[in-house]
Amino acid sequence: MNDRKENLESKNSDYLGIIAVKSASLLNFYQCSACRKWPLPNLLRTIVGETVIEKPTYYDSSRISDSGQLIYGKGHYFPIRDKAEVVREIVKIRTNFSDLLAAQQKLQQERDHAATKQIKLLETIAQVANLLLQASDYTSVLPHVVRLLGETVGSHRCGLSQILIVPASGKRMVRAVAEWCQPGVSTSIECTPDLELGLPTEIFADLGVQILYGEIVNVLIADLQPPVRDVFVGQGNTSMLLVPIMMQEDCWGVISFDNCGAPRLFDTAEIAILRIAADSITAAIERQQQEKALLQAEQEKQAAIQAKQSAILEERNRMAREIHDVLAQAFTGVVVNLEAAKMITPQDAPLQPLLTQAQDLARAGLVEARRSVWSLRPQALENNNLRSALEQLLQALIHNTLIQIHLQIQGIECAITPEVETHLLRIAQEAINNALTHAQASTIQIELTFGTQKVELCVRDDGQGFEPMAVRGHGFGLISMQERADCINGEFTLTSQPGCGTMVLITAPLSAKSNAPIRRS
Question: Are strands 199-200 and 172-181 parallel, antiparallel or unpaired?
């Protein structure tokens, strides 16, 4: 009995007692002092050979008594038989929950640690996403991204590689883009120099195929086969996690987390969070590609507009040359010949009035031809600035008229791109022509205002005015002014009211290289 007592005490349980069954009488057996402390029903069931296991009064490891000890359950009763299968002893024990409590506490600590680690990793992912979102060029923040990820997960090395396609052969190459290492750990390029220019994906065998199909690889290096195992062993890796960066259906690259010490595999929660980091990089790449495409489209649009404007200006110049060389020269010849005819014709001859009338018509045609040339080709801008061109325009338009016209310059004059100058001059010409032709104005006020980033042209008259809505879509001159404003990204404003005159206001940006003040003429 003593031997059995020692064996019971050595187990992970509390020994409560052992009773020898000597009396055949159950009543005499229960009346012994040792048995009266134990429940009779349990003893009776055990005597006849049944093992009785009582439910514990409490099993939750988190519930501790005031003394700090776990409240144990009740006893378990076991019959001990002889060779004849007669019960000779009854053993009562109860389970010791101390080890279970310690295990549960350790498990809870591990859960708390894992939760804290996941929260920290999520905070890092948020920081990574913010870096990528704020960067105008995502490549500039990739070194910070791999450092944050590597430090947070505790890897010895964290790198980002891009998968490129060689145009000539169509083969895929892996090239290192950014990498972070713990102190004393060599970079992957130091271990595998070909990664700097590109390493064929065929070297990575099935591992490379998994990555290309977007599968995450969480692997122990010892489980790999040569030659891919040799590559990673040469880098000092014992385990690694590879998270692909997918662009729709194609693999753009991969984030690698290398362990060079004791090998470890990442759990499911860590992998899911690190997948978010890869998706954030994908979003940054796609956003930058879209911005680049929009910029290129805008540049192509501006180039097409400039080509169209150049073609229009070239055609206008051609027409101006034709008018100048043909019509203007012809009218000049007619005027000269008519003057000669008048000189040889007697003053009182009936032909003299006809010659005078013909000469006046020829001079009028010459004036119109010259005006057409000026309209088609603003020669005033070829050797002068916008202010001088406006002054020449005013002198030409108000010649032999009674209208008062004033030009006012405000701000420091800045160089303006030729395209902006041409359109502003044309808008001013159209607005002044409208005032002279339709407004019946007595005064026209022109203001040219230079700012640090924009130039503003305002043409105001005191004529009869009109209702803008009544002529919308019908006046070619108004449509032309609006289109010219659009060509230079300007803002066009037309203000008019019957009996209150008209104001045309155009605000256009200066060129990025036109901020330097220039001399006044």
Answer: antiparallel
Task: Give residues with Cβ within 8 angstroms of 317, minimum separation 6.
Answer: 376, 377
> What's the average model confidence in pLDDT over 139-147?
93
DSSP SS3 for 70 = strand
Mean pLDDT of 44-50: 80
Judge contact between 518 and 385, C-beta under 8 A. Answer: yes
Half-sphere exposure of 213 (CA within 13 A, CB side): 8
pLDDT in tens, 169-178: 888 888 999 9
Helices (H), 259-414: 268-322, 329-344, 351-376, 386-397
Long-range Cβ contact pairs of 366-369 (< 8 A, separation 24 or more): 366/328, 366/331, 366/332, 366/335, 369/323, 369/324, 369/327, 369/328, 369/331
Global pTM exceeds 0.70: no
Please give the backbone phi and psi of residue 28, each rounded to the nearest 5 degrees, phi first.
-65, -35
Q: Read off the pLDDT of residues 260-312 as tens digits, 9 standing for 90 and up.
A: 999 999 999 889 999 999 999 999 999 999 999 999 999 898 888 878 877 87
pLDDT of residue 56: 56
Helix (H, G, I), strand (E, B) or coil at 408: strand
Task: Cis check for the bond before 263: say yes or no (omega within 30 of 0).
Answer: no
First to last CA, the chain: 126
169 CB-near residues (< 8 Å, 6+ apart): none
Output the furthest CA–CA distance in the chain (Å, rounded): 177
Tokens of 461: 């008259």
Residue 475 has a pLDDT of 61
Q: How far is it, in rounded angstroms, from Cα 237 to Cα 97?
A: 42
Task: Return the SS3 of 21.
Answer: coil
Q: How many helices (H) and strands (E) does the chain have?
A: 15, 15
Q: And the tokens for 320? A: 């101006």
With helix as H, strand as E and coil as C, how does 485-508 read?
HHHCCCEEEEEECCCCCEEEEEEE
Q: In what order do the strands lie in the sheet with 443-450?
A: 404-410, 443-450, 454-461, 502-509, 491-496
